[in-house]
Design the sequence.
């Protein structure tokens, strides 16, 4: 299954923090957008000349005219997609988006919910916050940023802080006291983590050491496809597709007109996992879907974020 | 007679210690005592001091005697053991890990109580030992028949001849029993001992 596409118009663009813009996307000609649950993301397709990027962005909430709200962080390491969103997308621009997909849902049977966000990882948490408040659920939000200027929606959340919302700024030497937070929670509490890879790894380890079952620990990690050595992909019909240094394998396949499966494009859902028939070089696995054993075995690869370390691999496509 | 391949049929992967758990709550009947002992042989001496053990029913629990558990309670029946367990879970904090070893009705009722206290069912570590007899809910009168060993079985409440299925309800901790002669009234096959 690859999600259906829908065309949307950009209704509003705001600068919200250093390197972060907020976009409101509405359906064309009054078309309504599908409902979504908190934690959902959409994949936005961006086209510039002969280049195409498809990036996943969490839906933060609903705008006044029933559009989706997303935030885009343009990092210096951007492979082009988020930079395109920042420089080429304006009010009135049209974009293609996928239907919402939720790989990071709230567990509604949980007794209490603890949201841990770092930097731009706040975006799905804002939708979760709305949903938890609406359901009168018990929750805590802990949001860490580098500095108040770098933190999206930091001041909005600052104004809401109380017992259930805490913000931390590392330039003031503040850290989320996660071990203390997780050490005293009622049975049936769930923790949700979204932020930089390092933060997620840290949070998972703290939760494990606190004796939390893995079923109560949830994270969203969208990796962008890291660059690497160029390599070739050979398809079943003999076609050879070249993958450039800054291209993902999935992007190269799509550019060559191959209808390869995908859903999240961030190494999280496993939809794009494809059988490797042969490979003359090492596979570089960057996804969070395959198990360590599966990665070791080298028989499958997530085309959205993983690649070969040069050479040529033959895929069952 | 069992219809296989039904996804709701639970699986019990076996007891495995959670070295990071702050409190381990272990429920076992005499058949499960050996599984508890096998698990305790995999851990350091400190582990037992973080364990509360609930022993269920009569029988031989000698396998559990060598270990210095923080506390051990004995209950005469599953129902009384569940009462004790509920008391523990009401005061439980995250970091509690629940284990259960023994018959399927014991495992099922412990998991049911756990879920009712917010524990995710698949985070309970389970090992099936002993009898394969089943707790069966009649889908017609909703009555539960305990210790079912035959198939079909007569519902202890409404008397209907029930086909015992692999279709399992975690909410009721019971397998589903459906009227076996619904299509051809009166045609009830010979009851056979299917569970021991």
Sequence:
């Amino acid at each position: 299954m690859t999600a259906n596409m829908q065309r949307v118009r950009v209704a509003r663009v705001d600068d919200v923090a250093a390197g972060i813009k907020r976009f409101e996307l509405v359906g064309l000609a009054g078309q309504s957008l599908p409902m979504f649950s908190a934690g959902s993301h959409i994949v936005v397709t961006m086209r510039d000349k002969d280049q195409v990027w498809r990036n996943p962005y969490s839906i933060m909430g609903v705008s006044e005219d029933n559009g989706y709200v997303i935030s885009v962080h343009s990092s210096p390491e951007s492979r082009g997609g988020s930079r395109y969103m920042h420089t080429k997308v304006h009010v009135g621009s049209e974009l293609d988006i996928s239907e919402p997909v939720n790989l990071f849902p709230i567990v509604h049977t949980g007794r209490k919910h603890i949201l841990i966000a770092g930097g731009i990882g706040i975006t799905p948490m804002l939708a979760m916050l709305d949903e938890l408040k609406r359901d009168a659920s018990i929750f805590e939000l802990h949001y860490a940023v580098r500095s108040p200027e770098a933190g999206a929606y930091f001041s909005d959340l600052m104004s809401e802080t109380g017992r259930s919302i805490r913000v931390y700024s590392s330039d003031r030497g503040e850290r989320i006291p996660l071990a203390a937070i997780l050490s005293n929670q009622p049975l049936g509490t769930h923790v949700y983590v979204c932020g930089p890879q390092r933060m997620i790894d840290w949070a998972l380890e703290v939760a494990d050491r606190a004796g939390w079952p893995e079923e109560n620990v949830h994270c969203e990690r969208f990796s962008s496809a890291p660059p690497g050595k160029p390599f070739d992909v050979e398809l079943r019909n003999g076609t050879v597709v070249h993958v450039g240094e800054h291209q993902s394998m999935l992007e190269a396949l799509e550019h060559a007109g191959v209808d390869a499966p995908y859903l999240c494009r961030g190494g999280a859902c496993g939809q794009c996992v494809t059988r490797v028939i042969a490979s003359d070089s090492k596979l570089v696995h960057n996804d969070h879907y395959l198990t360590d054993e599966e990665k070791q075995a080298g028989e499958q690869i997530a085309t959205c974020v993983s690649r070969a370390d040069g050479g040529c691999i033959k895929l069952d496509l | 007679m069992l219809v296989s391949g039904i996804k709701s049929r639970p699986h019990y992967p076996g007891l495995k210690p959670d070295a990071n758990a702050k409190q381990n709550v272990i429920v076992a009947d005499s058949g499960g005592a050996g599984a508890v002992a096998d698990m305790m042989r995999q851990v350091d001496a400190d582990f037992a001091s973080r364990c509360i053990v609930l022993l269920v029913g009569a029988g031989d629990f000698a396998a559990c005697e060598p270990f210095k558990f923080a506390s051990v309670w004995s209950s005469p029946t599953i129902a009384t053991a569940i009462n004790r367990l509920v008391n523990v879970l009401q005061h439980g904090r995250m970091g509690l890990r629940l284990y259960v070893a023994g018959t399927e009705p014991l495992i099922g009722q412990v998991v049911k109580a756990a879920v009712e206290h917010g524990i995710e069912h698949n985070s309970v570590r389970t090992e099936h030992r002993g009898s394969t007899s089943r707790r069966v809910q009649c889908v017609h009168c909703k009555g539960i028949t305990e210790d079912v060993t035959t198939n079909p079985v007569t519902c202890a409440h409404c008397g209907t001849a029930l086909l015992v299925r692999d279709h399992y309800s975690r909410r009721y901790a019971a397998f589903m029993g459906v009227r076996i002669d619904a299509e051809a009234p009166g045609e009830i096959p010979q009851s056979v001992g299917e569970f021991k």
